[in-house]
Amino acid sequence: MTTTTVTSPLFEVVSRHEFGDVLLNTSTNQKSLHATIAIKPGDVLSKFHAGVTQSFATYLTVQTGVDKHITLQPEFLQYINHSCNPNVLFNTDTMQLECLQNIKAGDELCFFYPATEWNMAQPFDCLCGSKSCIGKIQGAKYVSEEVLNNYKLTSFIQLMLNNKKD
Prior knowledge:
Layout: E1 11-16, E2 20-25, E3 30-35, E4 44-47, E5 49-54, E6 61-65, E7 68-73, E8 81-82, E9 88-91, E10 96-99, E11 110-111, E12 124-125, E13 136-137, H1 145-148, H2 155-165
Parallel strand pairs: 8-11
Antiparallel strand pairs: 1-2, 2-3, 4-10, 5-7, 6-7, 9-10, 12-13
């Protein structure tokens, strides 16, 4: 297994982990998690668990139930940012971070926030640049079923969609 670290004048390594490095973009002051190894679809990158469980969403939580939101442990997983072309999923049934598409060393790890979030605490305008970009990110509640059918979703979000139809 070969490891690579992304380095450039714009990025500083904040912390190193088994499969990736947390990088700080020195021009935006934003952190992100980047792979240091090649990862294949279906691979499990990490197990995770709840650091704190609470009844309300924050920008750092992942939703696991109607009134159940968790902070991620290990903590470095919180630096996996959003993309409308995600390469990982937080599977909240197995509590595993799963690879969705081929990831090369150096690639940023990203997940589709509406795959885990029904109604987000802090909606934002997406700037991912993907041809499948959905624009405003505010949770699965606000995304058409037609669009959501293009993504792997957690069973909680799928349940909420099914209940929405009833």
